[in-house]
Amino acid sequence: MVFENKYPPEKKLYIQFYRQGVYPAYKVMGGILLLLGFVQLLTVLAGIFGWIDSTLSPSFRIVFFDMSIFIIAIGGLLLAYPSFLGRIFYRKEKKMGSENQIFFDQQITVSRFGRLFRYEYGKIKKIKETKESYIIMFSRNEGCLVKKGAFTVGEEKEFLSFLKAGGKGCIPREKEIQ
After folding, report:
1. What is the pLDDT of residue 161?
2. What is residue 174's predicted lDDT score, i.e. its pLDDT?
């Protein structure tokens, strides 16, 4: 059994890969920081406008106001960072004019950015299925994205069970990736 997945670069897929595959915790951390920052900001503003009794001196209010703005900014950056990286790598791949090409036989061979990357099935740490793709992670920040509906060799129905079985039943491919 051999599988090949080939597709041109798509911005949406790159963003999805970095948001859900490489940096999934950034969404949670960014959301928590935004929430905390807005709560702190509202508390400071409520004290300034006299909506609540506040014993803070004006200098402390300024410090807490500045801290809340800083916390909100950090939360926003954490939410935006994976999308930003996805856009950068999408542009890089598109500029090179290459396609993403992934072969699954005795090992996983990924052609990206004009280079070949080879991975063993035993190195797979996590497989995440989304609506449009499979995200295969080999380490915390290294993985590949397999687009659904882009299989040029093999059937998508059999792919996930093949992958979870660690590539058992694979046969060597006849052609080499360029």
Report:
1. 81
2. 42
Contact 82, 15 (CB under 8 A): yes
d(CA 37, CA 2): 51
Look at residue 1 in the predicted model and tell me its pLDDT. 59
Q: Is 67 found in the same domain as 108? A: no
In the chain, the number of structural domains is 2
Give the domain extent around 112.
3-10+98-164
Signed CA dihedral, 15, 20, 26, 31: sign only: positive
Distance (Å, whole) CA 5 – CA 100? 8
Interatomic CA distance for residues 55 and 15, integer angstroms: 46
CA distance 83 to 80: 6
Residue 148 belongs to a domain with what CATH number? 2.30.29
Distances (CA, A) of 133 to 58, 70, 176: 53, 36, 24
Average pLDDT by stretches of 10, the chain with 178 residues: 85 92 92 95 85 77 92 96 93 81 83 84 87 90 89 86 70 42
* Three-state DSSP class for residue 168: coil
